[in-house]
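Q: Give me the 3D complex with histidyl-adenosine monophosphate.
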Amino acid sequence: MSKPPVSKNESTKKIQAIRGMNDLLPDQSARWQYFEGIVQSLMRRYGYAEIRTPIVEQTALFARSIGEVTDIVEKEMYTFEDRNGDSLTLRPEGTASCVRAAMEHGLLHNQTQRLWYQGPMFRHERPQKGRYRQFHQVGVEAFGLDGPDIDAEVILLSARLWQELGLTDHVTLELNSLGSNEARAAYRDTLVAYFEAHHEALDEDSRRRLHSNPLRILDSKNPEMAPLLADAPRLMDHLDDESRVHFEALTARLEAAGIDYVINPRLVRGLDYYCRTVFEWTTTALGSQGTVCAGGRYDGLVEQLGGKPTPAVGFAMGIERLILLLETLELFPAATGEALDAYLVPLDEGAEAPAMLLAERLRGASPALRLQLHCGGGGFKSRLKKADRSGARLALLLGEDELAQGVVTVKFLREARDQQRLPQDALAEALPALLTGEPT
Ligand code: HAM
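A: Here is the predicted complex, encoded as structure tokens.
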């Protein structure tokens, strides 16, 4: 097959990142690492184990779990045919992959699992602040437990994360119960009858959803629909007894743990696999993309994908939104950057090889030391200028003189202090004191 012709103009045009997909530059990545460090430690403390799954799956996995008539599956998936003609999709979320992997590897046979994951997800949505086409989630999924205790646990885990990030006063927990699948089916009929009786008041989107996914009409943000929705029959009033008891036990546990919540009877979620408990943590500080974490129970999904009936509950949070929120509220600790401790400068070409060996010796002896070795040659002045620009606290200078005497010259770049010469062998031991400014 011949290659498609490329015009000269085309071939020299700058290639840019795909709209809605972001680069994470070094000054940002320190903030992500701060967030990820807190998350990892939290998961370990609650006994959740990490699972990593591929970012591409068979398209049918998402269509069958998230639901054919959802925004995600209808409009937002990155679906393509691979070279074998198989239909593949970049994962739009993590729950379906997690269930697939747990089933495939026998993790759900007569055992419970508490899993967590983190990684990029892909949805072809209209990009705006807090909404991207490649975004990142941290998610938690607990399998094999059907009581309200585990619902409470995953919510408490998220609440502790807010506490550790300083966000507790800036997020609100919204809760609802969707009831059992049977109760929801009965409620659905009641709801359709109500909307049909008020057909003229429905907007176009809602008319389209009336028979395919009527519960999603409750989610409408159209202000003209607000009075109609306010009077709509409430799911809460149509719960089956078991779901009601489950929900009351959950709210009692949250109250006992001092977690505030509001019941939002219109919270239905945009994915079809949920039943009973659903929840969202929202903030008013981010504009329209204010949901930072969302989840719920999905007791039917494992069976729906061909496994044995297995209760499950989980959530996912949007990392970009949480980073934005921490930035907006100025909640990042000041020292999330990774400044260098020392910059080692061979003062001429002859000192370059010995400087490399000295750098390796220092790194071996002081694992916490952040040391950069000057590379790329240059004149004496430019080498020193680079040392200064590196942001390091100390410059370690190694020239002909130093080599002859087995010493290193230590120059203090950020404080007015006389430079010193120290034996190379004593340097590793002296560095902690030199870096904290103590006299040596
Ligand atoms: P979701 O509500 O679709 O649920 O997404 C969870 C969170 O991911 C959202 O609350 C938001 O913070 C973030 N998010 C979603 N879409 C975007 C986007 N385009 N840009 C930036 N952030 C976004 C799920 O994905 C379920 N799998 C959650 C779950 C896990 N339920 C049970 N287990």
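A quick observation: The pocket of histidyl-adenosine monophosphate is lined by residues 93-95, 123, 125, 131-132, 135, 137, 139, 141, 270-271, 291-296, 298, 314-318, 320-321 (CB under 6 Å).
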